[in-house]
């Protein structure tokens, strides 16, 4: 994932950043961007957004984040940072560096569009 990140933005580092009291997986301080790599412990196991039904064009519905994950994102955003979330299960299905780079760019773009 870091290789894809380096191709997308300036150097990043993993750890808590002084601007926020919360540890983040990857911080890009120059862009006030936190990238969270969310594994299965961040999501409800039996509930998805959209009621668990298949999404458009047969795509699987997105897993629903747990309350603690949502709270952490909101607290970080409250400090003026943007939070990009990368779902590990979806990341692992991507084939090739280009597909992973595009997915990471999409996650960052979605985060930058947040209020």
Plain-language structure description:
By secondary structure, this protein is an alpha+beta fold. The chain has one domain (2-44, 61-112): VSR Endonuclease (Endonuclease, Chain A, 3-Layer(aba) Sandwich). 36% of the residues lie in helices and 27% in strands. The chain has four helices and six strands; from the N terminus they run αβββββαβαα. The strands form two sheets. It has a four-stranded mixed beta sheet. It has a two-stranded antiparallel ribbon with strand order 4-5. A hairpin with a 4-residue loop joins strand 2 (23-28) and strand 3. Helix 1 packs across helix 4 (97-112). The longest helix has 16 residues, at 97-112.
Question: What is the element layout, followed by pairings?
Answer:
Elements: H1 2-8, E1 13-16, E2 23-28, E3 33-38, E4 43-48, E5 63-65, H2 67-78, E6 82-87, H3 88-93, H4 97-112
| CATH classification, class level | Alpha Beta
What is the mean predicted local confidence, pLDDT?
A: 77
Portion of residues within helices: 25-40%
Distance between the termini: 26 Å
SSE topology string = HEEEEEHEHH
Uncertain regions spanning at least 5 consecutive residues = 6-11
Q: Enumerate how many helices there are, as a single number.
A: 4
Level-2 CATH architecture? 3-Layer(aba) Sandwich
| CATH superfamily label | VSR Endonuclease
Give a quick account of the main beta sheet: strands, pairing sense, barrel closure.
Answer: 4 strands, mixed
Fill in the CATH topology: Endonuclease, Chain A
What Rg do the Cα atoms give?
14 Å
Multimer state:
single chain
Task: Sum up the structure in keywords.
4 helices; 36% helix; globular; 4-stranded mixed beta sheet; Endonuclease, Chain A; alpha+beta; two-stranded antiparallel ribbon; 6 strands; 115 residues; single chain
């Amino acid at each position: 994932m870091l290789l894809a990140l380096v191709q997308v933005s300036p150097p990043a580092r993993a750890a808590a950043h002084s601007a926020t009291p919360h540890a983040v997986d990857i911080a890009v301080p120059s862009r006030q961007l936190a990238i969270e790599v969310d594994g299965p412990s961040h999501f409800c196991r039996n509930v998805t957004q959209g009621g668990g039904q298949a999404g458009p064009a047969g795509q699987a519905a997105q897993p629903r984040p747990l309350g603690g994950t949502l709270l952490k994102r909101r607290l970080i955003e409250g400090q003026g940072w943007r939070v990009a979330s990368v779902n590990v299960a979806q990341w692992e299905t991507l084939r090739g560096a280009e597909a992973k780079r595009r997915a990471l760019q999409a996650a960052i773009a979605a985060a930058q569009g947040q209020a």
